[in-house]
Structure formats: structure tokens, C-alpha cells
Fold this protein.
Amino acid sequence: MDPLAPLIDNLHGEGRLRVWSLVITVFGDSVQNRGGLISTARLGRLLGRVGVEPGAIRTALSRLARDGWVVGERSGRVSEYRLTPDGLLRFIGATERIYAAPQAGPIRDWTLSLEDGGAEGFALGPLWLRPAGAPQPRAAFRMEGRLTALTAAVRDSLVAPAHRAGLDRLQADLDALSGADLGPLDSCAARTLLIHRWRRIALRFPDLPAELLPADVIPPRAAVARAYARLTPAAEAWLDSAAPDMPALRASDASLALRFTKPS
């Protein structure tokens, strides 16, 4: 059985696949830290491994070029793409959020405040709950202390239905990857699908601390970080490899080693 089949089925089972978004994931995860340039042959081989047809990749690249995300270059017979300066600017904040470090330890002190929102926090009716060290917007009142009770119903209320569905799909992908013995291309494809799934959660929903998650949800950022570390050596070996129609990417810069280690 194909070890990537569960992840590929999950990817294609959510309605029409936005291939352009998957291409952006590849740039963010495997290209920008390696000089920013990828050949269409390598992109086609990577995305072909997860069931994306060549025509769909060409259409996605055309759309991204039209929207000012990427620009194409040619070197002899090799066709390559890189992000535009505007595309690079759009990456900065997203990259920091996607690859921020997991929660380092338990949160002991919290603030509860009455305010209009305006910063990241967790709404409890009209009140906002935040770790005590987080940025705190202006409030009509604020108090600080320990959480001494938090029911399952409150925990569940902090996770919107779409957020919960995303977390459940992420966990299904992580379960499928657990213990899988993958070669270089498969590892790079699996890492791409993992980050594509995680990216849509991390950029859309709040990064709930472990203390606020429902009891049956494993802290997702830590779980993604562990799987990412397992997949990365073989994935990077594939990006280092070369073929007549597929030049190796440049060596990775130091940012790769900082993923999931720098605090948000």
C-alpha cells in the first residue's frame, strides 16, 4: 500500500483542490530557504507524487504569475520560478506564525478582561482570557491569577467547528505518518502535505494553549513539530538530489534549523 495514500486521499477529499495554494506551500517550505528558485520539473515531480496533474500545475503557476506572486525564468532547457518581491513580502508574517515554537511549558498565570478585543485572545462571552505575558489591549477591567476550573464545555466552546474539523483532519494525517518508513521523495511530499494542512490552521485560527484545548485534542503545534523533525532529513536529501532535467536546489540557509524553535 502507498504510505502516502491516506494523506493524498484527505487532500483530494475536501472538494476542489486549490493547486496554487499548494504551490505556495512548496515555496514557503522547500524553496525560500534554498535560494528561492525551483524548476518546473522538480515542482512537477513533487506535486505529481501527491496526485496533481501537470496541466493543473501549469495553470496554477500562470495564475500566481498573473497575480504577482511568482515570475518565471529560463536557464537553457530548464524552466524555473521564484517569488516576486511582493510575493516575498506577503510571506514574512505567515512564515513566522507557521513555524513558531510550540508552547514551552505550562501557563500558570492568566488575565481575564472586559474589552473590545483587538488582539489575540480567547473569548468567554463578553470577557477575554489570555496568558498573563501576552500583549494586553486596553480594557475596562483586567484581573490576573490562576485558572482553578475549566469545564469540558468551556474548552469545546473555544474551538470553532471549522477549527475542530481542521484539527481532526490534521490528527488523521499525523496518525497516518506515525511509524511510516518513507524515502526521500515521499518524505518531501509528506512534509509538504503536513505543512499545507497546518498552514491553513495556523493562519486562520488562534493558537490555543494546551491548557485550553479539549481533552481529546493533542497540542497540534508540538505534534506537527515532531513529525516535521522526523521527515526533514530525508526530505532535504531529495531537495539536494539532481537529475538531467532537475537541478538540485541550493543548499539550505540557517532558517531551516530555526523552524519550530523560535518563539512566536
About this structure: The CA atoms of residues 2 and 8 lie 10 Å apart.
